[in-house]
Amino acid sequence: MSASPLAELLRRHAADFGPVLPVDLNAADVTRLDFTAANPRLATADLRDTVAFDQLVQELLTAQQARIGVGGYLENRVIYRRSPGLFGDPAVPARSLHLGVDVWLPAGTPVLAPLAATVHSLADNDNFGDYGPTVILQHELEGVTFYSLYGHLSRAGFGDLQAGLPLEKGQAFATVGPWPENGDWPPHLHFQLMADLQGRRGDFPGVALPGERDYWAALCPDPNLVLQSRWLS
After folding, report:
1. pTM, two decimal places
2. How far is CA 79 from CA 9, 44, 66, in A?
3. CA 43 to CA 20: how far, in whole Å?
4. Is residue 200 part of a domain?
5. Does 115 reside within a domain?
6. What is the pLDDT of residues 192-211, one digit of tens each?
7. What spatial distance separates the first Cα and last Cα of the chain, rounded to whole Å?
């Protein structure tokens, strides 16, 4: 599969991006977390119980002597079975291909604009297993407009944001949310890139059908082109 035009643009500007979170994603205490069926710990986990799910995340981090977990881009995950109403009808193939990167770290961690931006739209997608508070930023490079999405945020300060608000590179505009307000997930940031929002505002699919991988990968290129974490190469 050839790289999308947006992916090539982002590669050319790799040195221009600031951090999305005020942490070093290449530090020794950062590790990859696997939420596919290949992880035996997920086979018996009660993922609908957020307390148990959060404990599982902490156990996975502890087992790898890590404080922060990352992963997810184009990962065929089993964790979406916790909210089948959002991710598919049990009678048809499930949407399980993750289109962003998740960074699992404490609630309250600031979220930063990696590049100068304008707030495109925001919404509190308040359903079990959904994004919870969500912000979409609009960016421009070489005359090309593209977007970044930040899901599972805190409601604290969320009401201060509005569409059209300009942000400087490195400016904190949100924080990682606690459950249940973050869509009822263990605290983490869902970070995703989009070449086209297809008319959407405050929301965008973060999970797709595995059979549509090529289509969605072209529309939503690898977030590690911005994050640049060794765990996501």
Report:
1. 0.93
2. 32, 11, 21
3. 32
4. yes
5. yes
6. 999 999 999 999 999 999 99
7. 16
